[in-house]
Amino acid sequence: xxxxxxxxxxxxxxxxxxxxxxxxxxxxxxxxxxxxxxxxxxxxxxxxxxxxxxxxxxxxxxxxxxxxxxxxxxxxxxxxxxxxxxxxxxxxxxxxxxxxxxxxxxxxxxxxxxxxxxxxxxxxxxxxxxxxxxxxxxxxxxxxxxxxxxxxxxxxxxxxxxxxxxxxxxxxxxxxxxxxxxxxxxxxxxxxxxxxxxxxxxxxxxxxxxxxxxxxxxxxxxxxxxxxxxxxxxxxxxxxxxxxxxxxxxxxxxxxxxxxxxxxxxxxxxxxxxxxxxxxxxxxxxxxxxxxxxxxxxxxxxxxxxxxxxxxxxxxxxxxxxxxxxxxxxxxxxxxxxxxxxxxxxxxxxxxxxxxxxxxxxxxxxxxxxxxxxxxxxxxxxxxxxxxxxxxxxxx
Length: 396
Fold this sequence. Notes:
2 domains; six-stranded mixed beta sheet; Rossmann fold; 396 residues
């Protein structure tokens, strides 16, 4: 059984009377890769700063190995942080950047007396070289920071944070400044480093792909609250509400009625599903992932609709289909032209049922996406003079 390392107990955080964290209860296990995932302003970075000691919660407790840490400053916690901006020293080479924290004298207590003590130079060199090898920078000791790529600079920042041997490494969107290919490579590198060292990584991101690729556990947040905690598979396959379903991947989210265990109705038709435990005739949200929909000839379909937009995405086509005024996203490797009438088939394990929530009705209809696809595919479409697309202002 995994050992609990950190626990946040009923933590709240307010800035100028605005509640940023709303009664957060969360624990982190030793040797775990846990990701705080959510949109900007959801409270994930504030949570990270509370763990690191950079921010003190307005109320609640921060426990480390069962000891209250609310008033302990960052440098006295067994925690180090890698920020989005690496803050490397340009006048120092790679070796000295990594060694910087080791050269700071430590306060030690011997025979009841406190004194400052430096690490021997031999130990510093050994630990720096070991860490550079772990982050795949062996032989880069004498390189200047300006001579490194973005990914190499990030590895230096990680090595500098880990060389002090913290129990926990906090990472605040460290891949945001990298290009797509390098970001994917570094996802694998971070997971490898975490597994090799066996320490706890707490990672903050708004990128669902990063979270799914690296994490043991994902904590989905919105509006200062935890929406769901689980493994990547659980979060993706069993979202708790419409926000999680929409934020983690694409989802068609429909209004439905749960007639009985394993039977749900939507679009005036009953479908078999794998869910149970709902009240008879309870209104529910129905989630259908775009990749789970099978397109068939109209006469063989359980539902029929009309293709309204098609966008090529490389490995598949994003196909928008209008079903009785509600537009679905279907991801398929087969091309279906705009205006074509199609049928679809849904198997019981393609359908996931959720209780209604505050997010019901906010997500899942791809009408706005259809309009955007029409604009992209229209050769006569031009931007408005003020720079807004289609007069939609700053909406996203």
